[in-house]
Structure formats: structure tokens, C-alpha cells
Amino acid sequence: MPPPLQAHRMLLSHRRISSGPRRRFTAVSSLSSAPAKTVVAPGPAPSSILSIRESLLSGERTAVDITSEYLSRLRRTEPSVRSFIHVADAAAEREAEELDRRIASGGKDAVGPLAGVLVGVKDNLCTAAMPSTGGSRILDGFQPAYDATAVRRLREAGAIVVGKTNLDEFGMGSTTEGSGFQVTTNPWDDSRVPGGSSGGSASAVSARQCVVSLGSDTGGSVRQPASFCGVVGLKPTYGRVSRFGLMAYASSLDVVGCFGSSVFDTATMLSVIAGHDKMDSTSSSNDVPDYRSDLVSLNLLESKPLNNVKIGIIQETLGEGVDTGVISSIKAAASHLEQLGSVVEEVSLPSFSLGLPAYYILASSEASSNLSRYDGIRYGKQVPADELNELYGDSRANGLGHEVKMRILMGTYALSAGYYDAYYKRAQQVRTLVKKSFEEALKKYDILISPAAPSAAYKIGEKTNDPLAMYAGDIMTVNVNLAGLPALVVPCGFVEGGSAGLPVGLQMIGSPFSEGNLLRIGHIFEQTLQDLSFVPPMLADI
């Protein structure tokens, strides 16, 4: 059955939405179903950004030393991981030298919060003086004249952009196998995918090729790779971060997000990139707090730091189609949250399964419009032809990949005159219902939790011939984009796989613009999660 028809059948069966019955959560005893060899005792996740800043200002290390360390690690791991499409090593070294000169001349007070921090940028975000391809051959060699707003704000805060990370073409995919350039691997097991579409950004942070990175999230493209790669991933509220300079996939769903190896680093990133932008009319004018201010260190936490916090665990995310190891890890994480003082209850969102078909109809429809700009004339490569329509067709046929072409066709079909009401209009109605169901649930609970993906990272090539199975992997994340809500993914456990287990991520969902609360809870969870190390085994020999 073609994807639009299958989606339509699912939409026709939708029911009236309610927040569903509640029942007390039943805990399990273990935070990991992985073998004992994955367990280490490292203590709370350290902040790489804080460590870099303190070492620079104290004179203990120079920016050149720090940059050299990361570039050296990148060169050793990149042949296996392939996180980057473009590495700007010479530019990074020059910027580090300039930073050292400013610090030496007494400019410590003028050093920004991200001084000396190496950042990877997903290649669908525009960067001046660097290629920006969107992972597509049709933009091979394209170099923008400006930085995306999020990139510009990072640079203004002192960050050093080390390069452009790999992605599924124009953000359309869940494995990074859909890149027009290369296949990125998972640092935990190089035979497995890192997730997608921001797989390059997630794997780069996981392999410590850079300190933090930028990604984009249209239906889970930050959160699912964060889960697969064992890093922290944040999808902000729609409008919290400017989309100016982000190559549009689905404009009503696209969000610029970020990755870090700790919640504190992710909060620091958000504090820098968030805020209104006159270049993006959808960006919010809400004040931007310092998201780090409520993050308390472990030694200052109370015995029950989450006392009076109510958490709903989404019942539909722990049923059929979810790996048992993932369910065990999520239930154990919920038990840990209870031990920290919170009240955890199961909550039913009957609309949850309807979000997936609605998402793919809406996203494909918007993509069919947004990608019309890639015609071989205004952007990218051009295939010479005698007639204009032939030029358009040949340029797109040669420059765009299979997945992108398929989604353009799906979207065009859904928007066509005879099918608009049956598909696009119906999907918009379901989107409204999904949003209302989240609103009702979040009136009763401070946050909702679920897995970030129904499984851990799977083998490269395992789902390339079954696109519907790949689309189904987005079931945990797409509803959040439909509702425009913020969500944070933190590593919470392991399942069996690879040489040392495969990480699992816990998704925390909040009300609009409640990123501060999500980060506070995520930071407490991370700081108190003992005996688990989320450093890939490949780094043991580096």
C-alpha cells in the first residue's frame, strides 16, 4: 500500500482525544539491561565547556592546545566515524591563536561564554566561508555569503566552528544513510547507524570530535540520534531559536537544536542561540533566561531534589513495537526519578499513534513546496539543456536523492486538488487534536517522559529497503514537533549490542518555553545517575 494511502487509513480511524486514565507507575529495579561490562563508576557528567573556560582563564591551557587536542582526536576517529562533510581545521587553528592573543593582552573580561569551545554545525545551517550542502549533491560546492543566526550567535560568544556535520539529505531520514556524500557510523559500534537526520552532529559529540554541536529537529532529528549515540540532545520550543539560515524542510515543524555530552553544556548552548531574531518572523520575543542558573551541582542537591514534581510516563510508548531492553531502561529511569522525590504515573494519550501518519503527510507537503527552489538555476548544480523544463527536470533528477524525490512526490500528491481534504486537511485536524491532548496532560504533570526511540541503534543497511519500518521509528518524537513543544533527551541506560552495550535515551517533554524546567530535571537526573559511563569504547585507545 503506498505511504499516503496507509497514512490515510490510519487517519480515518482516529478517535476523540483525552488525556486518558492514570495509574501509578510500577517500577523495575535495574537502570540497564546491558551486560555488566558496560558499567563504570565515573560520577556525574562533567561540563566540557566549564572545564575549557576555567583552564583558559587560569592560564593552565591555551586555546591552541585545546583545539589541537580535539583536531587530533577528530583526525584519528574520522576515517571510521565519518561525522563531517567538511573540516575547517586551518580556520579553527587561526581562531584559537587569535583567542590566545586576546587573553594574553588582558582581554579575559571580553571572552565570551563559549570561548575556545569547538562546535560542529549540521550542514543544513548556512555558514559563511564554508560549504553548506544540506547533505545533497544538488548543492555540492555551494557557499553562502552569511551565517545562520544560530551560528552567528555562537561565533559572537567565542565558539570556534570546526566544520560541517553529515546528515540525511535536507534532513529527510532517520539514519544518516541518506546523505549524498557518505554514511556516518555510530561511535559505539561502527556497524550501526548514529540515527538521523542529525547523525553527524550526534556522533561528533559522542566521539569527542568537538565539544558541542548544532542540529535541526523536524520530527526527532536531534532526539533520536542523541539516544542512539549516548549524548544529550535538546529540541527547543518552536520559535525559541531563529530558523534564519536553516535550509527549510517543513517550515512549521523545523527547529534548531543542540547536542552536548552533558546537560550543562546543552543549557549553555541554548542560552546563547535562543532569542528573537528580526530575520525570522516565527521567532519568539519571549525573554531568554540564563538556562544554567537553576542547574545545581551534585554536592548541593537536597536528598529529594524532585519533591512535588509530577511526571507522566506515556503509556502508549511502552507497548507493542518497543524493544524490551528499551522498556526496561525507561522504567528503571522512571524509578530513579521516583527515588529523587517525584511522583510518576502512567498517562494515556490515545492520539499518540495518529501523529506519525499526520506528520509524514504535513512534512512531505511542506517539503514539496520548500524544495522547489532547487531547480539548477538559483542554487546548486545545473545540468545543461535546450529547454527550461528539461533543465529543471534533469538538474533535479541528477542532484536529488531517492528519499527526497519520494517525499516530494508524496507531498505533491497530498496537496493535489482531488486529495487535499482527504490527506492534508485531515492531517492538520489531527495535529490540532495531538496538540490539545498534550495540553491537557501537561496541565496535570510537570513533564511527560517516554523513550526517544523504540530501539537502540540498529545495523547499517537494516532498514534501507523498508522505508515504512524506518518511518515507524519516529513514533516517539514526531508528536512533539506537531505540538511545538520542547523536549530533552538524556542517556539513561544500555541494552545489549556491540562490544560494550548500546545507549538508550530518556525523552522529557515539557510545556511551551519550559526548557529551563526540563534542563533542571535532566541535570538532576544526570548528576544522580551513578555507575554508568556514556563514553564510547572507541575512545579508550585514543
Structure description:
By secondary structure, this protein is of the alpha/beta class. The protein is built from 16 helices and 12 strands. The chain has a 12-stranded mixed sheet, sandwiched between helices. The longest helix is centred in the C-terminal third of the chain and has 24 residues, at 421-444. 58% of the residues are buried. Residues 1-21 and 32-42 have low confidence and may be disordered.
Report the sheet-strand fraction.
Answer: 5-15%
Rounded to the nearest angstrom, the distance between the terminal CA atoms is 49 Å
> From the structure provided, what is the oligomeric state, counting identical versus distinct chains?
single chain
Mean of pLDDT: 92
Low-confidence stretches: 1-21, 32-42
Structural class: alpha/beta
What does the overall shape look like? globular
How would the blueprint of this fold be written?
Blueprint: H1 3-12, E1 22-24, H2 48-58, H3 63-81, E2 84-87, H4 89-104, E3 118-122, H5 149-156, E4 160-165, H6 199-206, E5 212-217, H7 223-229, E6 232-235, E7 255-260, H8 263-273, E8 310-314, H9 324-339, E9 343-347, H10 355-370, H11 388-399, H12 402-415, H13 421-444, E10 447-451, H14 467-472, H15 478-483, E11 487-495, E12 502-509, H16 515-528
Parallel strand pairs: 3-4, 3-5, 8-9, 8-10
Antiparallel strand pairs: 1-9, 2-4, 5-7, 6-7, 6-11, 10-12, 11-12
